[in-house]
């Protein structure tokens, strides 16, 4: 599972020697000089590129971090650990749950580990918190999950890229679809935090533009809601014909199960943003999830050659189905591979410039996509959970087409 | 350090120390030399260490100031707060907003942050200090969580859970402090002023009265003091210094998010105070250093086992350092003091 | 009024179910604090141990698995409580915050060990056979298992009340809450009492974890949420009072259920808002529990 190029040794060198080593190792420099980060990593180093992989290894987002690391490792395994002509050295850092741990982790990669590029970051706040620092250090960062629109808008920089999605992109696809289908009034629910609010806004805007009406909406306490009954009774009394929700992790499991237990599943169809039924949460939801429809930019069931090969290789390597989180990291590696094939020297600015020119990613498991404003313009799929021989899958009902950036 | 450490653990043993002990002047002179050396060492840091280490030390200084401000409540006044991060966070948001919308010229953002922390603490403190012990702990927890939820909800002002980002660099005389070493000097200067301020409060007649209330509230009341008024002022002062620390934090990491106001931060800083040795003011500095190093510096490299290390540190510390880090020095002090029979 | 009642009947009923669950998970914490002055911040972690034991033993819908999980959880809880009694004994004369440092440290370690054993995925646990599915209540579907929780909570409350009020053990318990020194002066070994009380208190936490598993599942981070809920419940009622824990649980059950249904826009504020309000009006909880330290 852990390929040899993972630089575990850092753990022993830095931690074993303790704070003293931390101080002395850096003795030559001082912290009053100009920028010395980044430019010393490669170039003359005999063809290596050092990439920081920032993923949650502790806290509630850990399952996403595991999937991302597996996607990353798989791409490297398939490419002999090389990006272009450069050998890849991966330095892993734990993002944790919040910017309080994520920002120092990135700072350390930028300064102590002098990486040439960075990939990862689940939490949008962490991505926004480091955007300025990676720009100042001139080290490209490919965000491989965080979906806040601001990351590539308000905080836009030539060094901040994204291989995942934006919250609104996915919600808007469903909004347009449901509006055009004319399903009747929809009740909208999401956790009360930035991503939840973005999803609700993105959905309602697209849904109303397509002629739909909203039956009601509720924002539930984020991260601590285990019991959705009080909100579900609101759905029932609103006269909604369908429900659209955005939940992930533990809340996604509770929501889908309780939606079934309180008898709403059969009377008011449940729609959601794809994270509702993505990855390990789907197994935990069990039969309650069957029939739930979601939109996302990936499903294991997408019918194309690249995806078939990817799913097979992933299953062979890890004995489980890939998730969208794994694909996002896999594609980030793919993008870096393409960029590094185009550079003359390994440096942050050179890689960032090469990223401008990668064009369409035509061999991605999610189908072809390309960067627009440094974030993917990609197909969004309508998926439905089905039980196929005891395995729950997100089958593809319809390709909703390329979803432009809001 | 002559009077405080012993009485924290045996509240009934000693009466309130209203007058400073006569040995204090001599102790001050004896301590001045090492303090000067320490100061010079701290000031010389940026000449030798790499930016990441300088940043880590800045972080430690900020959390140390935050911890010492809490120690004024926990150790000196006997009010264990589990919501102190609320005022730290309010300070951080204030400094961030001032820097974004008005000026990041030092020391304007941190002074306003301190003011905001003090005002917020005063606004909530008159309710909080009426209770005590575990009820005080829980009431402050509730207030902290309400502030946390507000920070989460007021997306237009705070950026919600995406955090308040895009905070510009601190400026001194118009020049932005982008280098880690310069930023460290700025943090060091303000934090030292904060430490001195808190030390003066704790060692003033006002501070002595607080200790008296901590040790024997009925007696202080019968002497004509109003415990409520003293606790309230202590709460507001502690909030002000927490706000100051928060203001520095916003300038250092340049993002503020709701977690900085919430339970996790409050609990960690309270444990840092206990770990260091409540009531000593300097013990919590070490406690904060350990917490920052374990959680933010070494934790991210342990393949996700950072929390495990933190847990082990807490458990071991309870037995190995019964009075926190301050207890180590306490041993030495007691030995020295024993023959003379001071205090 | 009748219309309002009908519309919210399910939420009120659900409030009782959640309240029952909260009582089961909080009463142990309250007993331990009231009798032994130990503020056990590892209570939430012990609860999560129970939930994960349910994940291990409840395979498919079966009573055997469910009772095995309950039995193992009870045993593990007793042992954990005994160990905690031993660990906290040297801290008996030290400030309560030292115990907080110890028990929070233990809770971080336990949570981490659980995540090493079970990974970080979310698990759900099926209900026992007869309790799976839903029944119709006032025209809406309501999960049968939650109705059973109300019964379990009532029975537990009754048992605890009988034990405390009508037995000699109960007399000892009440005496310990009132004056611990007095009890040891009577020649009763304080340490044995402590082992017993912490054992039972922790057993209640792990058993609550099993009972709650079909509702809350098992996942990293649940321990913290549960700990905060349990603390809120026992503080609202008044520390160390069993009646207080029951009332606190019922109040918070309704707040979390009916309250959220009535003012969904302020759902994020309502739990801690209630706590703050109660403590401002009654600084020592509704039933003015024992004087805290």
UniProtKB/TrEMBL annotation, chain A:
<dbReference type="InterPro" id="IPR051010">
    <property type="entry name" value="BCAA_transport"/>
</dbReference>
<feature type="domain" description="Leucine-binding protein">
    <location>
        <begin position="48"/>
        <end position="388"/>
    </location>
</feature>
<keyword id="KW-0732">Signal</keyword>
<comment type="similarity">
    <text>Belongs to the leucine-binding protein family.</text>
</comment>
<dbReference type="Pfam" id="PF13458">
    <property type="entry name" value="Peripla_BP_6"/>
</dbReference>
<dbReference type="InterPro" id="IPR028082">
    <property type="entry name" value="Peripla_BP_I"/>
</dbReference>
<protein>
    <submittedName>
        <fullName>ABC transporter substrate-binding protein</fullName>
    </submittedName>
</protein>
<dbReference type="InterPro" id="IPR028081">
    <property type="entry name" value="Leu-bd"/>
</dbReference>
From TrEMBL, chain B:
<feature type="transmembrane region" description="Helical">
    <location>
        <begin position="110"/>
        <end position="129"/>
    </location>
</feature>
<feature type="transmembrane region" description="Helical">
    <location>
        <begin position="28"/>
        <end position="54"/>
    </location>
</feature>
<keyword id="KW-1133">Transmembrane helix</keyword>
<keyword id="KW-1003">Cell membrane</keyword>
<feature type="transmembrane region" description="Helical">
    <location>
        <begin position="232"/>
        <end position="256"/>
    </location>
</feature>
<feature type="region of interest" description="Disordered">
    <location>
        <begin position="1"/>
        <end position="24"/>
    </location>
</feature>
<keyword id="KW-0812">Transmembrane</keyword>
<feature type="transmembrane region" description="Helical">
    <location>
        <begin position="183"/>
        <end position="202"/>
    </location>
</feature>
<dbReference type="InterPro" id="IPR001851">
    <property type="entry name" value="ABC_transp_permease"/>
</dbReference>
<protein>
    <submittedName>
        <fullName>Branched-chain amino acid ABC transporter permease</fullName>
    </submittedName>
</protein>
<dbReference type="Pfam" id="PF02653">
    <property type="entry name" value="BPD_transp_2"/>
</dbReference>
<feature type="transmembrane region" description="Helical">
    <location>
        <begin position="60"/>
        <end position="79"/>
    </location>
</feature>
<keyword id="KW-0472">Membrane</keyword>
<feature type="transmembrane region" description="Helical">
    <location>
        <begin position="306"/>
        <end position="326"/>
    </location>
</feature>
<dbReference type="InterPro" id="IPR043428">
    <property type="entry name" value="LivM-like"/>
</dbReference>
Automatic annotation (TrEMBL), chain C:
<feature type="transmembrane region" description="Helical">
    <location>
        <begin position="41"/>
        <end position="60"/>
    </location>
</feature>
<keyword id="KW-0029">Amino-acid transport</keyword>
<dbReference type="InterPro" id="IPR001851">
    <property type="entry name" value="ABC_transp_permease"/>
</dbReference>
<feature type="transmembrane region" description="Helical">
    <location>
        <begin position="100"/>
        <end position="119"/>
    </location>
</feature>
<feature type="transmembrane region" description="Helical">
    <location>
        <begin position="263"/>
        <end position="281"/>
    </location>
</feature>
<keyword id="KW-0472">Membrane</keyword>
<keyword id="KW-0813">Transport</keyword>
<keyword id="KW-1133">Transmembrane helix</keyword>
<feature type="transmembrane region" description="Helical">
    <location>
        <begin position="12"/>
        <end position="34"/>
    </location>
</feature>
<feature type="transmembrane region" description="Helical">
    <location>
        <begin position="66"/>
        <end position="88"/>
    </location>
</feature>
<protein>
    <submittedName>
        <fullName>Branched-chain amino acid ABC transporter permease</fullName>
    </submittedName>
</protein>
<dbReference type="InterPro" id="IPR052157">
    <property type="entry name" value="BCAA_transport_permease"/>
</dbReference>
<feature type="transmembrane region" description="Helical">
    <location>
        <begin position="228"/>
        <end position="251"/>
    </location>
</feature>
<keyword id="KW-0812">Transmembrane</keyword>
<feature type="transmembrane region" description="Helical">
    <location>
        <begin position="195"/>
        <end position="216"/>
    </location>
</feature>
């Amino acid at each position: 599972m852990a390929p040899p190029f993972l630089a575990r040794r850092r753990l022993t060198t830095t931690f074993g020697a303790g704070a003293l080593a931390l101080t002395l190792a850096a003795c030559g420099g001082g912290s009053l000089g100009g920028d010395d980060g980044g430019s010393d990593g490669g170039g003359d180093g005999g063809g290596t590129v050092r990439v920081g992989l920032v993923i949650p290894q502790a806290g509630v987002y850990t399952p996403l971090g595991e999937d991302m690391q597996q996607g990353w490792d798989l791409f490297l395994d398939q490419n002999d650990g090389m990006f272009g002509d450069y050998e890849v050295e991966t330095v892993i850092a734990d993002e944790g749950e919040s910017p309080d741990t994520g920002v120092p982790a990135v700072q350390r990669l930028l300064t102590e580990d002098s990486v040439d590029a960075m990939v990862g970051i689940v939490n949008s706040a962490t991505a926004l918190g480091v955007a300025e620092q990676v720009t100042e250090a001139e080290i490209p960062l490919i965000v491989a999950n965080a979906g806040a629109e601001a990351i590539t808008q308000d905080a836009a920089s030539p060094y901040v890229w994204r291989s995942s999605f934006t919250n609104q992109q996915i919600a808007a696809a469903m909004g347009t679809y449901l509006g055009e289908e004319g399903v009747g009034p929809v009740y909208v629910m999401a956790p009360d935090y930035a991503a939840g609010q973005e999803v609700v806004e993105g959905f309602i805007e697209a849904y109303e533009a397509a002629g739909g009406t909203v039956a009601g909406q509720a924002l539930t306490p984020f991260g601590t809601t285990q019991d959705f009954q009080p909100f579900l009774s609101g759905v029932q009394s609103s006269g909604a014909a369908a429900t659209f929700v955005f939940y992930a992790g533990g809340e996604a499991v509770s929501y889908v199960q309780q939606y079934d237990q309180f008898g709403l599943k059969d009377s008011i169809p449940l729609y959601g943003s794809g994270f509702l039924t993505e990855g390990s949460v789907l197994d935990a939801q069990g039969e309650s999830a069957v029939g739930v429809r979601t939109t996302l930019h990936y499903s294991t069931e997408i019918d194309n050659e690249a995806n078939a090969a990817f799913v097979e290789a992933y299953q062979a390597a890890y004995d489980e189905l890939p998730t969208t989180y794994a694909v996002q990291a896999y594609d980030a590696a793919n993008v870096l591979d393409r960029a590094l094939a185009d550079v003359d020297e390994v440096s942050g600015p050179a890689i960032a410039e090469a990223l401008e020119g990668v064009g369409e990613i035509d061999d991605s498991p999610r189908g072809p996509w390309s960067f627009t404003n440094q974030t993917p313009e990609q197909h969004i799929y309508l998926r439905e959970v089905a039980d196929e021989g005891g395995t729950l899958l997100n089958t593809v009902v319809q390709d909703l087409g390329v979803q432009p950036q809001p | 350090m002559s009077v405080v450490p012993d009485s924290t653990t045996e509240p009934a043993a000693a009466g309130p120390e209203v007058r400073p002990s006569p040995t204090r002047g001599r102790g001050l002179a004896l301590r001045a030399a090492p303090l000067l050396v320490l100061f010079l060492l701290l000031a010389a840091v940026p000449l030798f260490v790499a930016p990441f280490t300088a940043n880590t030390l800045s972080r430690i200084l900020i959390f140390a100031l935050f911890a010492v401000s809490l120690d004024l409540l926990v150790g000196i006044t006997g009010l264990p707060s589990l919501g102190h991060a609320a005022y730290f966070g309010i300070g951080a948001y204030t400094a961030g907003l001032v820097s974004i919308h008005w000026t990041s010229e030092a020391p304007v953002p941190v002074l306003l942050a301190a003011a905001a922390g003090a005002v917020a603490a005063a606004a909530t403190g008159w309710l909080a200090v009426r209770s005590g012990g575990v009820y005080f702990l829980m009431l402050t927890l509730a207030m902290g969580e309400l502030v946390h939820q507000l920070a989460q909800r007021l997306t237009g002002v705070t950026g919600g859970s995406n955090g308040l980002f895009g905070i510009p660099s601190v400026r001194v005389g118009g020049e932005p402090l982008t280098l880690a070493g310069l930023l460290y000097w700025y943090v060091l200067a303000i934090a030292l002023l904060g430490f001195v301020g808190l030390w003066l409060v704790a060692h003033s007649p006002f501070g002595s009265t607080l200790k008296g209330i901590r040790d024997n509230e009925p007696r202080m009341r019968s002497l004509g003091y109003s415990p409520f008024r003293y606790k309230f002022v202590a709460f507001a002062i502690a909030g002000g210094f927490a706000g100051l620390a928060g203001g520095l934090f916003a300038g250092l990491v340049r993002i503020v998010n709701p977690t900085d106001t919430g339970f996790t931060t409050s609990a960690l800083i309270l444990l840092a105070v206990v770990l260091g040795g409540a009531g000593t003011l300097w013990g919590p500095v070490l406690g904060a250093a350990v917490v920052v190093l374990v959680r933010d510096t070494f934790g991210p490299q342990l393949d996700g086992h950072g929390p495990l290390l933190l847990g082990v540190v807490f458990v071991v510390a309870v037995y190995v350092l019964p009075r926190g880090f301050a207890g180590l020095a306490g041993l030495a002090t007691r030995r020295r003091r024993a023959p003379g029979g001071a205090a | 009024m009748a219309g309002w009642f009908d519309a919210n009947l399910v939420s009120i009923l659900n409030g009782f179910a959640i309240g029952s669950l909260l009582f089961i998970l909080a009463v142990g914490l309250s007993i331990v604090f009231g009798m032994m002055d130990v503020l056990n911040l590892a209570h939430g972690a012990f609860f999560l141990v129970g939930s994960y034991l349910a994940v291990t033993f409840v395979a498919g819908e079966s009573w055997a698995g469910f009772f095995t999980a309950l039995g193992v959880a009870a045993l593990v809880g007793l042992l954990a409580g005994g160990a905690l009694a031993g660990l906290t004994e040297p801290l008996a004369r030290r400030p309560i915050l030292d115990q907080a440092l110890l028990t929070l440290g233990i809770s971080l370690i336990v949570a981490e060990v659980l995540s090493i054993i079970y990974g970080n995925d979310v698990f759900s646990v099926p209900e026992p056979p007869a309790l799976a599915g839903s029944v119709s209540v006032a025209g809406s579907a309501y999960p049968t298992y939650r109705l059973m929780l109300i019964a379990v909570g009532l029975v537990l409350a009754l048992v605890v009340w009988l034990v405390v009020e009508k037995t000699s053990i109960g007399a000892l318990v009440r005496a310990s809450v009132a004056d611990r020194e007095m009890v040891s002066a009577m020649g009763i070994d304080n340490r044995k009492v402590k082992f017993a009380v912490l054992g039972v208190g922790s057993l209640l936490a792990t058993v609550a974890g099993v009972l709650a598993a079909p509702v809350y599942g098992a996942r990293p981070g649940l321990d913290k949420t549960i700990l905060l809920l349990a603390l809120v419940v026992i503080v609202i009622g008044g520390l160390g009072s069993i009646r207080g824990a029951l009332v606190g649980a019922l109040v918070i059950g309704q707040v979390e259920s009916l309250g959220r249904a009535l003012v969904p826009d302020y759902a994020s504020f309502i739990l801690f808002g209630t706590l703050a309000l109660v403590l401002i009006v009654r600084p020592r909880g509704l039933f003015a529990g024992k004087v805290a330290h």
